[in-house]
Amino acid sequence: MLTVSEAPDDGRPTTNDASPAADDSPNSADPADEEGTASDLPDDVEALTDEVEALREEVDGLKAEREELNERLLRKAAELENVRRRMDREKKRRHVAGKETVLESMLEVLDDFERSLDAAQDLDVSEDPESAYETLKGGVEMVYRKFQDQLQSLGVEPIEAEGQPFDEQLHEAMMRQPSDDVEPGNVLQEVQKGYTMGDRVLRHSRVVVAAEPSESGSAADSA
């Protein structure tokens, strides 16, 4: 901006230049620096783009791996369920087959019992009761032996009790009774026979346990 000041003594006007001086502030941008920063940006953007793309591919790979693992787990679960169902069917089949085997052997014993009952009815009208009785007795004994044979074929054995030391794993004490003939703590009498099948006790033997002669027997006393 030009201003006209008062004229000097020589009469000529003086002109003052009010325009600002060149800005030497350190904040002013250097065109050369701007060009250098701009030239670096494309490389940084490209690197970031590559990194993002790599991460995206990694995520896609993890998703695919997860889906594959889920499919494997579902297949394994289905296989286990099929195995469980097959085992259940096989267990039921064996259970039914086992019952059939036992019942088949029992049916033969039932037939023998029916014949023994017929013989008992004939005893009432027999002209020789003694002979009919012996026939009936022999038939019953035969049925008993046959029944024992069938039990043995199934692995069922009677438990030895009388005279044996009391064993709570095999025997159930009903009472204690003094005895001079049996050692105290041994089985004096078998009330009900027990049976085992292999290592398993099907039924404990109910027994009377011998006590010292001075002791009094009582159904409430336990061995």
Automatic annotation (TrEMBL):
GO MF annotations, alphabetized: adenyl-nucleotide exchange factor activity; protein homodimerization activity; protein-folding chaperone binding; unfolded protein binding
Ranges of biased composition (kind: Low complexity): 16-30
Keywords annotated in UniProt: Chaperone, Cytoplasm, Stress response
Region: Disordered, residue numbers: 1-44
Cellular component terms (Gene Ontology): cytoplasm
Keyword Zinc-finger among record annotations: no
InterPro entries tied to this protein: GrpE, GrpE_CC, GrpE_head
Domain of life: Bacteria
Compartment(s): Cytoplasm
GO biological process, one term: protein folding
Main location: cytoplasm
Sequence ranges of Acidic residues compositional bias: 31-44
PANTHER family assigned: GRPE PROTEIN, GRPE PROTEIN HOMOLOG, MITOCHONDRIAL
Family under the similarity heading: Belongs to the GrpE family.
Self-association and partners: Homodimer.
Function recorded in the entry: Participates actively in the response to hyperosmotic and heat shock by preventing the aggregation of stress-denatured proteins, in association with DnaK and GrpE. It is the nucleotide exchange factor for DnaK and may function as a thermosensor. Unfolded proteins bind initially to DnaJ; upon interaction with the DnaJ-bound protein, DnaK hydrolyzes its bound ATP, resulting in the formation of a stable complex. GrpE releases ADP from DnaK; ATP binding to DnaK triggers the release of the substrate protein, thus completing the reaction cycle.
Name of protein: Protein GrpE
Organism of origin: Salinibacter ruber (strain DSM 13855 / M31)
